[in-house]
Specification:
- By secondary structure, this protein is mainly alpha-helical.
- It folds into two domains: 12-89, no CATH class; 90-223, no CATH class.
- The chain is 74% helix and 0% strand.
- Helix 1 runs antiparallel to helix 2 and helix 3 (71-87) runs antiparallel to helix 4.
- The longest helix is centred in the middle third of the chain and has 31 residues, at 138-168.
């Protein structure tokens, strides 16, 4: 993907990939699907959207987003979803797989809290370099559990909203409304979660604040691994 301008403010590499490229890729994927579907039909639209999603995923990996460990799974998922949508020529199947995946992710997040291994606490250190003493603190564990439950609720509510929207809108309306409502709801949820996490973790003496954690990552970026990793 394109390189940053020399005058661009420094941004943690993980957030830069998510905020700058994730939203743009999602919008372009929707526009691509709508345009190709209107001209050449569902099969070509699914193929084009799937290809774009795969390229976007690999570009994010090359830009430093630490997703290499689940990249093969994402690739297989996108290919299977695209294949089934084309093979059965079914919008309901293609979009239904995505909605069901959201619901399963939400349930998985909730289960991770129930078994004492909240996924947000397991994955967040890949983005924010928390010191070991912070991660070992009971307040960190309880905060990550709450954030994981918030994420679980978000995914389940989002899946329910998608089902209602799919059944009450045209395909183009479904894609456009879902795109913008997803942006807004994700922005609000993530912003509120970061504020909550910063306040909760500030009770830990060695915690210097999320801004300081991001600055630490920006000053000491982890080297990206080779894209030629086993799959």
């Amino acid at each position: 993907m394109g390189t940053s301008s020399a005058d661009e403010p420094a941004t943690p590499v993980g957030l830069k990939s998510v905020n700058t490229f994730g939203g743009l890729d999602a919008a372009l994927s929707v526009l691509l699907f709508i345009g190709v579907n209107s001209q050449w039909g569902l099969g070509w639209a699914i193929a084009a959207s799937t290809t774009w999603s795969l390229l976007a995923t690999y570009r994010r990996r090359r830009n430093g987003l630490p997703i290499g460990w689940y990249l093969p799974g994402v690739t297989v998922y996108l290919l299977i979803r695209g294949f089934l949508g084309i093979a059965f020529d079914s919008e309901a199947l293609y979009f239904g797989i995505g909605i069901a995946t959201k619901a399963l992710v939400g349930l998985g997040l909730a289960v991770s809290v129930m078994i004492g291994r909240p996924l947000v606490g397991e994955l967040l250190p890949f983005v924010i370099p928390f010191p070991d003493d912070v991660r070992r603190h009971p307040i960190y564990a309880s905060t990550m559990a709450k954030l994981t439950l918030v994420a679980a609720g978000y995914e389940l509510v989002s899946a329910g909203w998608d089902v209602w929207l799919y059944n009450n809108a045209s395909i183009n309306g479904f894609l456009i409304v879902r795109l913008f409502s997803g942006w807004l709801s994700a922005f609000i949820t993530i912003s509120a979660s970061l504020v909550f996490a910063n306040r909760a973790l500030s009770r830990i003496e060695s915690f210097d604040g999320l801004v300081a954690m991001f600055e630490t990552r920006d000053d000491n970026p982890e080297p990206t691994t080779s894209s030629e990793e086993p799959t």
